[in-house]
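Collaborator request, handled under Task 6.
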Amino acid sequence: MKRGGTFTLRLEGDAGTGKSHLAAYLAGRAEAQGITVFFGASQNTQQAAYAALRGPVLGLLGLGDSPAEDAGVHDAQLEAALVAVDPAWRVRLPLLGDLFGISIPENATTAAFEPRLRREALANLVVDLAQRVAMTRPLLLLLEDIHWADEASQGILLALARTQSMAPLLLLLVHRPPAGGEAGFLAELAALPRQSALRLGELDAG
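Structure tokens returned to the collaborator:
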């Protein structure tokens, strides 16, 4: 990973196969080697769009990486953190309001986006932010239970996985085998280059 580039590793298995324990072990090993790890998880409940990504994005912004911390985040914090990364990104600030579910006044640029372009612009912002952080230190983003991810979060995960950069970034994505509406999303991930899957059920078969 420290050689650079974006790579996606998927851990696939039914409930109880130990995929979360394996992910935690891999994340711990990564941290011991000086790799920065940020964590997010989807829930099997009705949840706000992008909820699983709030913790990782807070971490990328240097505002902490606990999903619980997003409840108290406000626009002034986000603006200061975003401008600290790149002052030219101030115009993109309202997009973070979508991700964190808070109201941030629009500017002429973001107000002109129709919904599809707005989602793409937010995905590009998260990708750019991850790349900026990964250029300073190796980065691992661990996302649990992505089979429950909402459609908006799926779009960002695909954008991250498609990233072509020399910055060392590993996506560690944990999910159950495709079984329903998420099958198309997981198939898109599986078709991308620079990705691999470890299926825990196959380990048990031996």
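The cover message to the collaborator said: "The first strand starts at residue 6 and ends at 12. Strands lie at 6-12, 36-41, 139-144, 169-175, 195-199. Please let us know whether this matches your experimental observations."
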